[in-house]
Amino acid sequence: MDALGRAISPGMTTLDLEKEALRVMEERGVRSAFKGYHGYPGYICVSVNEEIVHGIPGKRRIKDGDIVSLDVGIVKDGYYGDMARTFPVGRVAGDRMALLQATEEALMRGIAQAVPGNRLHDISHAVEKCATSAGYSVVKVFVGHGIGTRMHEDPQVPNFGRPHTGPVLRSGMVLAIEPMVNAGTSDVVVLSDGWTAITKDGKLSAHFEHTIAITEDGPEILTCRRKNRFG
Ligand code: MF3
Ligand code: CO
């Protein structure tokens, strides 16, 4: 993800980014978790502006001022990791940056709830509250998920919900938490390619995702090399 963040620039196509992703995956000896998953044709997902998730890399050219969501899942030694990040490209308008910041903050607020003894929807509620209090909507038809020796394991992790409900969280659980936050309506349309999900009103959408482990000492972000506020 860091390498792709450095590579992304105006004038590239989404396919160019995928090629770079594939190069890095080969260099690191990891395999794409997405390629062939339920027939998904790409190695990563690249979703631009009004595209929410599951954008198939192709001819779309990235422009100055775009926001580009990259979703990357890999398998190494039988274990899955899944993460997403929305990058601003070039000079991005302030209101667009605000959407990115709120979405990342919603993810971090959700992660902060991933502690033993809390309930699953404490995570969901924290994500939703953060996004909606900033004036945005959360996508409801796509959710986070358990992850481990498969990409999608139980439980589903919605980005909305009632606090103090859902399964009790325990040390050792590993979750992919992934808010998709829209500037306008939360309604989604899937394009005729069968994958690309866009906002119904054509307004912007951002997506941030981490794979995290719940430990006795609190949440640990597995898809982050740097020191972070969760250790
Ligand atoms: N992060 C997304 C998810 O957990 C990516 C899946 S893309 C797919 O569903 F192509 F593999 F479906
Ligand atoms: Co995921």
Textual characterization of the structure:
The chain has 231 residues and is of the alpha+beta class. It has a single domain, classed as Creatinase/methionine aminopeptidase superfamily (Creatine Amidinohydrolase, Alpha-Beta Complex). The chain has four helices and 15 strands. A five-stranded antiparallel β-sheet has the order 8-7-9-14-15. Strands 1, 2, 4 and 5 form a four-stranded antiparallel β-sheet that branches. The protein is globular. The model has no long low-confidence stretch (mean pLDDT 97). The site of cobalt (II) ion has 5 residues, from loops.
Summarize the structure.
With 231 residues, the chain is an alpha+beta fold. It has four helices and 15 strands.
The amount of beta strand, in percent, is 25-35%
* Unique ligands: 2-amino-4-trifluoromethylsulfanyl-butyric acid, cobalt (II) ion
Helical stretch tally: 4
Mean pLDDT metric: 97
Helix vs. strand class = alpha+beta
